[in-house]
Amino acid sequence: MDQAIVVEQLVKRYGDFPAVDGITFAVPHGTIFGLLGRNGAGKTTTLECCIGLGKPTSGSVRVLGLDPTRARDLARMRPRIGVQLQATSLPEKANVREVLVLYAAYYGIAPRAAEMAERVGLGDKLDRQIAQMSGGEQQRLALALALQHDPDVLFLDEPTAGMDAFGRRILWNEVERLRDAGKSIVLTTHYIEEAERLSDRICVIQRGKIVAEAPPAELVARYGGDATVSIVADGFAPGESLDGLGTWTLAGAKWTLATRGEPGLALAAIVTHANEIGATITSLDMHRPTLEDAFIAITGETIGEAE
Amino acid sequence: MTLLRMFAIQTKMNFVWYFRRDGEMMFWTLAMPVFFLVLFSFAFSTGPNSGSATFLVPGIIGAQVLSSGFWGVGVMLATFREKHLLRRVYLTPMPPWVFFGSLVVYRMVLLAAQAVILVAAGALLFHVRITGNPLEIFAILLLGTATFISLGTIIGALARTTESANNIASILTVPLAFLSDAYVPIDRFPHAVSSALRMLPSTQFIDTFRDVSTHGAPLAHYGAWIGALVLWTIAGTVISARTFRWV
User: Fold this and answer.
1) Count of the separate structural domains present in chain A
2) Does the beta-carbon distance from B90 to A52 stay under 8 Å?
3) What is the pLDDT of residues B77-97, one digit of tens each?
């Protein structure tokens, strides 16, 4: 078994609406798999089908070789998976310590409340009640609950939605640490930066279908388009020394080079050329294709922010 | 061992989270029933029934059993689902019986506390005397609680939202409290009506409980009703188990 998770031809319909419409992917052990897409693309539904919260209309899901639609398999799966869900899902009057102690009891392990709280930056908030915590703090507690029993597979649904920069850094570091410890992780996100930083492979989901799947760098290389270097300089025109770098276009006073090569080298050559012909540079701009460019090229739309 | 510890901690947390830290809940549970007792005792004291407090103490305890099942468990479960608490615990290895069992223990202990307070208030204020066999009183109280918790769980299983669970619980609890011999003696109704009302499990439970506790009647006299309550409990449990949704 070299795959932690295998999803094949997964379909989940709500009435006539196909929330997930034939999704296939596999997550190798010890890797982070990012499901990237807009809100409502079908990421959460896919994840819910993996953890037994949703029953697939058709298709199959295997987590650690187990089928979450079968009660017996699901029971064997539960101690081995950790889940962080989107919405608040803890009693308002409970405090951090109590929740960690109770969840330790659910898994039959010794509670590690102080240690876990410390790990997610809540070390000084053990007695804080859920109702008095910010959304980000609740999300970090949810992560601690997902990790306390040391699961083999982690499912994180929009783990940093509503988190501040501090919480986001804690979560990202923790997720990377877990991957390095050999855990397999599936995360859904609509934050490009998060998907790019964490994922070994990214799967772009749009309207319930996978529209692209590859490591982040490969998605950018394949779909991100050319790098560009733009220059506005008095008396500038591309000369012989710049031939072969790529394609030049002129818009107003701005010359733009689209290149498949290394834009830094092209930029250096352009500056040298401008100096040689005595052109005074007014502005100079370089743009390397990003995952966001790739996302827009793939889906034909921007990812948008959470409302 | 692991399961016992899980059960113990879950039960303790039920008390801490849903009772001790919830002032409103404490008030409704501990003070309101006594308030009802005093209010209704004075309201009915001019009537022919001289022992109105003696009638009311078991009646109010019985009504509390009903609302404990319908509100305390039924509506609570719907709230848990709406707030996504259910789906979260569903993801853990906790067996469902631990979750439901700890809720039942929690409600039963609260009911026992309510019963003790009402009996004490009845004795102090209105000289109500509980003459029945304590074991039999406990047995019928336990059975009634099981019946109405299992029926209440159906509300929690079928209601889509907290709001609809609230509506169902209100529609059931309020009329039943008045039609089941809890607050008002149903013998005041025409015979045909009171006979019909005695087919309700709520009436059968409250009448049995009252007769056993304040009249010292032997529980064995109520075999048919006890059998019916057991059947209701089984039906409620089976329907709940079949229809309950965690998500």
Assistant:
1) 2
2) yes
3) 999 999 999 999 999 999 999
